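Now for a sample.
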Amino acid sequence: MTLIVANVMPITGSGAKAAARLCNFETSQSFLLRDHIDFLDGPVASAIRSFQTPWVELRGYASRAGDAGYNQKLSERRIAAVRARIEQFANKVNFQVYVALGESQSGDNERDNSGYYRAVEVLVFGTKPPPPPQPKPPEEGSRSFAIKCLSSFSLAFPVIDGPQGSMMTFAIVDITARQSASYSYNALGITVPSGPSLSPISFAGAGPWKKFGTTNPVNLNDFVGRVDVGQEPGAQLGNKSAWGNLQVMFDTERLGAKLATTIPRSIIVGTGSGFAAPSLGSYGVGNFKMIGGIDAFLETVVEG
């Protein structure tokens, strides 16, 4: 598809007193169009005469239509035509940037003969322009995540302050990168049941997603390591529950190395249908271990 452009396209943001891309040179030709001459004789001439030693940058182009070697010579002729016109405006003009680029920056389509590529760029400065600002490199990692408890099973000795073993699985999604990973969690801790005759077993299925952030960008691998998981006081029978959410706190070495903590520090994670005898809560220290690898995640995360 041929791109339709104006004969003179202003260039903005450069800091130049006069700047434009002179487009639509005739195919295989280098003579200036009337609009090109008007721009050169007007804004360019005025800018050059206002400076003692004007700094001029010229870049010549050609479309990809035709032979690359021919197009290189063609861009040289076009830039020479513009230079010859500008040299009439002052005794000394510093052409500090004067480069013919041929078809090297004219897209990938060999048949594209758009007027935008049949062009010469002209920029006039009073002095050497400052270097363009360097783009900020993208952050390595993300600050936006979501976590979900996939399954939970615990076995506790039914006495006050009794020992408890927990086996859980979680999933974490990197919302920015659209990636996910699954983790196993095994821990020893203590539970505080509300009485000595209660069932020592509790279990639950998958719960809702819970979004959280991090103070610095991190990756899914950085959640591998020490994690503290507590359970609020509560009870559950099937899909009916009273409190009993999990409190997940990450203290992994990898997060520490990146000076990163989660926001909030303690993440409240719900669970799905299951059974948990009334309890005053529990607390355990274990490790997140990644199950498999990191996969693409195409669903929409909805916070529960």
Q: What stands out?
A: Residues 142-296 form one domain.
